[in-house]
Recover the amino acids of this structure.
């Protein structure tokens, strides 16, 4: 569901558009986002959100389903695509940080358009690019953010070959 503009969103948008258009004389267009969010329930608490530009979602959805899609007739398909990508990314993140002998539990994805829903507190955001379009993955929750301060373990040494080398 797309939310109506709020005072903060409106102020930030106007400030960015007016500042950059006056400073560098380039047109600035706010990006419409489609996002998915998964709550991490156990063994850590938090959330993982994936936010894509609307046009990128159209392209990915068309590629995944091998069909032409448009913004009016395929809204449910777009949301399903974002939900599936969010669920897959969140599941892969959790499988990499939860010890192999433990299980994790995540919620079903929630999707939306426009402003992303955040919990209070800190958030880690990592940006990616696909075919010239940027998207972001956001991680919320102190349990998950604590992993930012843990180093990736060194891989084990390769096994010696048959000759003992």
């Amino acid at each position: 569901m797309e939310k109506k503009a709020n005072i903060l969103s409106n102020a930030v948008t106007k400030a960015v558009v007016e500042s950059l258009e006056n400073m560098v004389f380039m047109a600035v267009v706010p990006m419409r986002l489609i996002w998915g969010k998964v709550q991490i329930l156990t063994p850590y608490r938090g959330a993982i959100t994936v936010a894509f530009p609307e046009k990128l979602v159209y392209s990915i959805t068309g590629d995944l389903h091998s069909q032409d899609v448009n913004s009016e007739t395929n809204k449910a398909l777009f949301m399903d695509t974002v939900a599936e990508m969010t669920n897959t990314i969140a599941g892969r993140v959790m499988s990499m940080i939860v010890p192999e002998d433990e299980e994790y539990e995540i919620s079903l994805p929630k999707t939306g358009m426009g402003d992303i829903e955040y919990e209070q507190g800190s958030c880690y955001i990592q940006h990616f690019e696909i075919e010239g379009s940027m998207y972001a993955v956001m991680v919320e929750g102190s349990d998950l953010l604590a992993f930012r301060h843990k180093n990736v373990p060194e891989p084990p040494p390769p096994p010696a070959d048959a000759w003992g080398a």
